[in-house]
Structure formats: C-alpha cells, structure tokens
Amino acid sequence: MKQRIITGALYAAVLLLVLIFRRWLLAPALEIAALLCCFEMLRAFNKKGLRPAKVLTLICAALPVPAAFLGGGSGAFAFCCFALFLLLVCHLFRASPSLPDTASALLSATYASVPLALLCAVLRVENRAAGGLLIAAAFLFAYAGDVLAYFSGFLFGKHLMAPNLSPKKTWEGAAGGILGSLLTGSALYGIGRYLSAPFVFWHMILLALFCAVAEQVGDLTASLIKRYCGVKDYGNLFPGHGGMMDRMDSVFFTAFAVYVYCHLAAFL
After folding, report:
1. How many CA atoms lie within 13 A of 91 on its CB side?
2. Closest-CA residue to 254 (of 74, 127, 130, 122)
3. How far apart (Å, rounded) are the C-alpha atoms in residues 193 and 195?
4. Deepest of 13, 21, 182, 217, by most Cβ within 10 A of its Cβ?
5. What is the pLDDT of residue 115?
6. Distances (CA, A) of 31 to 37, 65, 119, 125
7. What is the DSSP string of 69-100?
C-alpha cells in the first residue's frame, strides 16, 4: 500500500506539471503515453499467442497525437484513417493472414492514440482557462470517480456489477464513482467561473454524469482485454499500479466525452 501511495503521488505530480505547462509538455506527454500503451497492448496480445505487426503498429499509433496538435481533431481523424489503411494492407498481404492478428494490431494502434489525440485537440480551445480545465477534467473525472468508487465499493459493496470481467467492481462502488464525478464537475465549474471560463453549471453536471459512465466502461473494457490475454496487469511501469494502460484506461473514454462536449458547447 505504501508503495502504491508513493507511486500515485509521483504520478500526480508529473501530471500536474504537464497540465500547468500544457502548451509545451502536453503533446509530448500524450505521445509518450500513447506509444507506451500501444507497446503494452501488443505485449499482452503476444502473450495470448497473437502476432500483430509491432513496428508498423507503433508507427501508426504515433501519428494521431502530432496530427491533432497541428490540425485539430480533423487532422487526427485523417491520419488515423490513413494509418489504419496501411496497417490493414500490411496484415492482408502477410504470408499467413490472420483476422485475430489484424484486429489486435488495429486495436493496439488506436485504443490509446485516438482519444489522447482528441484530448490534444482541446488545446485549440480559444479561452485558455476553459481549455486547460477541460483537459484536466478528462483526468480528474476519471481519477476522482475511480477513488470514490474504490472506497464506496470497499465500504458498502455487495452487488457485483460484472463478475465475469471484474470480481471487485460493485454497483455501490459505481454510485460512489458518480458522486466523485459530480463533486469534480461542481468544483471545475467554480474554478472556471473564478478564471473567467464560460462554463454553464448544468453543462458541467451533464459532463460529469457522462464521464462517470465513461470511466466505468473504460475500466471494464480494459479488464475485458486483460482477461482475454490472460494477464493481471499490462505492465509494471508504476509499482503498485501496473502499466501505463492500467493508469490511463478510464482517461481514454473521459477524453472522448470532453472532446464531444467541446463541440457541443461550441468551444471548438
């Protein structure tokens, strides 16, 4: 537990530094995270016996974040489509084409890189305070919900949510996660108003609820992949926490929610 707390504190400190100096550090940090997640997924699929094309998959995973930084979400989408086409062609013309190998490569190339690229596109929000808070929101909704869900499940958890995927997740824990997201949304609204960000209270509450659901789905999806591959954790990059995928699995889904919100609220 002590190791887990220390590692979590260091991770939070690095994340805070990236968010403060996001104009210079966010895109490189997201690119590193996307590549690490892709590498960890490829390794997990290898343990299952699958053989996706590693080098080309990593190259494809590296494209969306810089494309989003330079051209926004549309740039990321265009490069993602191009990369997936190349990856598909490569696997089709292998000596022994395999649908599971192809699917694992496509999933590894996009699972982390696309949502992180969309999060990078939020840098283009004109109001800098709003943009910074919305980027932070993708992480805060995921981690606040995760922490409250953990303690709620530990104290009150009785009814399992998806026992075949995660034997520890309960509906009581999910309720705690929703509460954590709502508290985070209220706090972000207050900070935003103080910093002159044009936030609307009920917008932030709806975003919080959406992210609360997205966070749970992200966690369960990562568990589904781990169970399929027969691994407990994606890696050991963060002692006591697992790999980059284990720390970011919920953020990928909350990042989508934040990006969609930016468009609906006309920030992008």
Report:
1. 22
2. 122
3. 5
4. 182
5. 93
6. 10, 6, 11, 20
7. HHHHHHHHHHHHHHHHHHHHHHHHTSSS--HH
